[in-house]
Amino acid sequence: MSVKHVSEAILFAGDKSVTVTDKDHDSFKQKKNLALTSLNQWFYINQLALNITKSNVIKFVPKNAVHIPLDTYYKDNLIDEVKSTVFLGMHIDNRMNSKNHVEQNLPKLIAACFLVRSFIHTFNPDTLPMVYFAYFHSVLQYGIIFWGVQNMCIKYLNYKKEQLE
Questions:
Q1: Going by C-beta distance under 8 Å and a sequence separation of 6 or more, which residues neighbour residue 1?
Q2: Quick one: what percent of the chain has pLDDT higher than 70?
Q3: The whole model's pTM is what?
Q4: What is the C-alpha to C-alpha distance for residues 112 and 137, in angstroms, rounded to an integer?
Q5: 159 or 50: whose pLDDT is higher?
């Protein structure tokens, strides 16, 4: 069985992520091991090395599911399994809850609100939308596809409403 049939690799800048899915735990472990073996070969061929201290594994599970540890090894080293991580600037957890992401970004939005409000009387009115889009809207929009349907986005929207008043 080819690794392309059991996993999906994502390359972005200096990061490489591998996604493996399966409903059956034993089948998932086999696919995971095949993906890691293939990843190891890819690193070797491309004269790269995996920094095990910066690597982690996250298992996405429904709220009511029992968590079974993955015990993922790479070259006889255990890769840490985490409940939350930062992936391309998105704070994600194993329940796909947006709470961590929102809590990490609220201070940025508060600072952007202060910045825009403090410039209202100093800047040309034509300049304020540029400041808004650069400092507030960019933070608000980043990752909205993941957390936009969650209840925690109400906090974001309240800040946006406050920003526009």
A1: 34
A2: 82
A3: 0.66
A4: 9
A5: 50
